[in-house]
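Morning, I've got a small favour to ask if you have a moment. It would help a lot if you went through both lines with me. I owe you a coffee for this, so here goes:
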Amino acid sequence: MDLLLVRHAEPVRIEDADGPADPPLRGRGHRQAALAAAWLAGERLDAIWASPLRRARETAEAIAVAHGLTVEIDEDLAEFDREAASYIPFEELRETKDERYLAMTEDRLQDLDIDPQTFQEGVVRAVERVIEANPGRKVGVVCHGGVINAYIAHILEIPKMLFFEPAYTSIHRIAASRAGHRSVVALNEMAHLRNVALED
């Protein structure tokens, strides 16, 4: 089967939420999602799965509408920061060299009270469930940068779980055989965003 892992579009920033932060897409993010949906409308998708987090669900819904599909949710596709009371976009953390950015890029997720092995195992189980349920089909899974990293690091046997930065609405293609073979076909595909102004 053909698996398309899609990172969510750009969400709003949330600080000090009353409970876990679950930001919606910002204006620019909705436009990114629409562009991804238009790009993927040229392919026949048989199913769309998503993380339960709002930024992923809203992106998935934009893609699903173009295919007449209903979004299926898997809790294990949620990002490792799902319980955090704030959401600061990764690029903002990078600009300020925030300790959370350093912990993520230096493979120190434990410093953020995250068990990387448990997270990665949950991600792999979730993605493999999607694969097993959809033999011979083309399926989109809208999720998060950490989820995409965790699964691809697993199939490529890369020790560092967070090894690259997926762009918003980037597409990552995996070929999954019935025999259990998993091959990376494309990483960070984002032609749909090329030469497009996305100002808020």
Observations:
- The domain at 2-177+186-193 is CATH 3.40.50.1240 (Rossmann fold).
- Helices lie at 27-40, 54-67, 90-95, 99-105, 116-133, 145-156.
- The longest strand covers residues 182-189.
- The two ends are 37 Å apart (CA to CA).
